[in-house]
Each structure stands twice: as C-alpha cells, then as structure tokens.
Amino acid sequence: MIHIVVAAYALMIVPALPxxxxxxxxxxxxxxxxxxxxxxxxRAMPAGEMDDLFAELAQTxxxxxxxxxxxxxxxxxxxGSAVADLLLKRGYAALDAGxxxxxxxxxxxxxxxxxxxxxxxAARAEAFYLGGDLGPAADDLRRVLLxxxxxxxxxxxxxxxxxxxxxxxxxxxxxxxxxxxxxxQVEAEEGVARLRQAAEGTPV
Length: 204
Prior knowledge:
By secondary structure, the chain is mainly α. Helices cover 65% and strands 0% of the residues. It has helices spanning 2-13, 47-57, 64-76, 82-96, 100-113, 118-130, 134-147, 152-164, 168-181, 186-198. It starts with a helix and ends in a 6-residue tail after the last helix.
C-alpha cells in the first residue's frame, strides 16, 4: 500500500515543475491519451518475489537489505531486448561524452522501442535534467513511476530537482517518499537532514 501512496504523491508534484530550458517536442514522446503505464518490460521474477525483496529492502536492521537492493536493481535492468540494451548503452555513452542531445536521441529511440522499460525513461530523464530541461525530465520520471511506483531513484531525482527549485517542503516530502521505499540512501538521507536543518534546525 505504501508504494501506491508514494507514487500518487510523486505524480501529483511532477506537473508543477517548470521547464527550465527550451522544450524539445521532437525529443520527448507525447503522453498517452489514457496516461496509463505500459506493462513492465523484461521482467522474469514473479510479483510476489519482488514484493518480498522490497519488504527486505525496507528493513533498517541487519544486512539482508543490501542483497535485496542488488536483486531489485538487477531485475529492473532486464529489458528483454538486445536492441533496448544497445540503445541504453549508447545513451549512457553519449552522456559520458557530454553529448546530451545525442543521448536524448538514443534514449528516445529506446522509450519508443520498449515503453515498459522503466530504466529507459529514467535514463532519458537524467539526460533532460543534465541539459537543463526540467519539465521533460519530470515528465519522464512520472512515466517511470507509472511503470514502477517503487522506483526510488526516480523519487530521489524528483526531490533533488524540487530542492534546486527552492521548493523545500515538496522536496522534503519527496525525499521521505523515496526513503519509505529504500531507507538506505545516503543522498536522500542527507537531503532530509539538510532541509530539516534549514527549516528552523528541526531534528531529523
């Protein structure tokens, strides 16, 4: 139930993010008429097993969470398509080379080829973000959360964007939403501490 609440909040705040650069209509795929998530791509693990992994991930004691985190990330990375894997590799290679537009091109092809592959949308969101286009980045993060409401990297990225825009209250809620899924994120923990300290120095 918690992941549904988390995603609902995240999807609510996404439209409020402004476009901080020129919109690239040719790069961003238009939203669907129904705005529903496509079926996740490449998944091999039964839903019940994934739920068990997320339950283990949420534990704040012991070491089992680390293995659960690795298993979840590995499962998410399975596109089930050699073409999708190649496009993702090319997209990240372009980002590493500083070619943001080239990366967006590869990753747009990826999202069109495999619309149910959440890491494809997440990667393109990163490319838009690095290019200064917060609106398209936020929309791609929304798509990630439609596919997988527990995709904590997308929640943390949303929080980071909100914090950069000075929307501290919304950023704090987004960081906490991400930590509700995965409480072992140093970046999100530091974000919460930073924002709480800015708000009258209230203890975390």
